[in-house]
Amino acid sequence: MTDEVVKSVMIVGGGAAGWLTAAVIAAEHCAHSEEGLEVTVVESPNIPIIGVGEGTWPSIRDTLRRIGIRETEFIRRCNASFKQGTRFDGWRDGSSGDSYFHPFDPPPGPDEVDMLALWRAAPAGAPFAQAIGCQAALCLAGKAPKQKTTPEYAAVVNYAYHLDAPAFANLLREHCVRRLGVRVVPDDVVGVETDEAGFVRTLNTRRHGALQSDLYIDCTGSRALLIGDALGVKAKDVSHILFNDRALALHVPYMDENAPIASQTTGTAMGAGWIWDIALQSRRGVGYVYASGCESEEDARAELASYLRRVSPPSGANAEDARLIRFSSAYRETPWVRNVVAVGMAQGFVEPLEASAIVMVELSARMISDTLPARRTMMQRAAERFNARFAYRWERIVDFLKLHYALSRRAEDYWRAHAERETWPARLAGLLEQWRFDPPSREDFTDALEIFPAASYAFVLYGMGFETARRPLRRRKDDPRRVARHLSEIAARGEKFLGGLPSNRELIDHALTNGLMRV
């Protein structure tokens, strides 16, 4: 490999992953100018983008702002709605009232007051999330995360979005081509040629012939044409930890155009999996994620039908119309090999719980952009850094998702199998033992950009009924006066927001009609 300047990046595969990656890199590296990086997307015209409603993380707001898309345009084009977290129904034991929240707003600062001290001082019976913050109450009331006069991407309480994935990909594509200088090649890749060192030399396409670039980014989904087929990089299977491998997905219409739009994703536990319910502007995306080793497709459709009758009886949605999606929970520990980087499902996928898919694309694109080597001889060092960071992130995602299942006391075989310690990752098992005596701490998670920080683990732990022993000695942040002051501030903030924030539907309608305030 020669010591040539890296002048071009070629992204193979469109969709949300390909176009979001292109946008992040092109915006940062001035692809629109003659002196900037050349960014090309090779997109097959024969592969449709499939989506039933996607959840995102709050980081998406900064990503959209950085690549130059207005929030108003995003909401109008992507059937988007505001998301403030996730509600989990029936995961603990399936009894009446079994429900907890994982909100996006963090608890009070860990240096100021202990979150367990807050919870223990709250009124008896108060759920953990409701005791230490007000966002769960806002979700229960269907409130939006900000006012109509709040500027674009600014927040009163932290938020992300639900969105229509195909519409999002189309918006990104248009933005990349028209404003960011990204070149698009509509074609199918029919072959990949490598040199004697194993670097990709050319992509052979059906109509445009051989295409060349300095760095190739594989966004071809589960097909993994470059990282898997061409370079032979295997994925690490984690299906012995996370059992789900099927999903039945469909669109569910609202009863009328004024129906409330939920402020959170709702995940409802079922006999052999769980159901997502994602509220968009004009419809809901609903899907049953389950383990085929524990339940047949026929029985899964019956469970989905039961859910639809319970939560949306007049909608006319039929479980028999749901599309069957097969997937495996696996990821590549070395997603950057030589001059190929895998992003999106080509890098990995470990079921849709907690909406980690799009945020992993964001993080991957940002790191590629931030560490893009100036010369090809620096490629190996960039790959080593990227691989170390993302192997860690995938391990933490698996840990966090498993936590939702490991503490369940439901009686079905599926849930009992998840609760067996033999299926727990070793690091998670060690942390659960530690958390019997100390709550989750930022010292437990060392990455500067943790997807799921200590607070996220705490919301799931204590939502699932986990108990941490009281500390034998008092600390400054356990002081009753300090705790009482924070509880009073939380209550006052909640009362103010409940009275002053519009509903999710009202804010979305305002954005569609009048637009949100420019910064």
Automatic annotation (TrEMBL):
* Swiss-Prot/TrEMBL keywords: FAD, Flavoprotein, Nucleotide-binding
| Keyword Flavoprotein attributed | yes
Q: What are the binding positions for 7-chloro-L-tryptophan in this chain?
A: 83
Q: Which organism is it from?
A: Amphiplicatus metriothermophilus
Q: Which SUPFAM superfamilies match?
A: FAD/NAD(P)-binding domain
Does the record bear RNA-binding in its keywords?
no
One protein family per Pfam: Trp_halogenase
In Swiss-Prot or TrEMBL terms, this protein is called Tryptophan halogenase
Q: Which InterPro entries match?
A: FAD/NAD-bd_sf, Flavin-dep_Halogenase_NPB, Flavin_halogenase, Trp_halogen
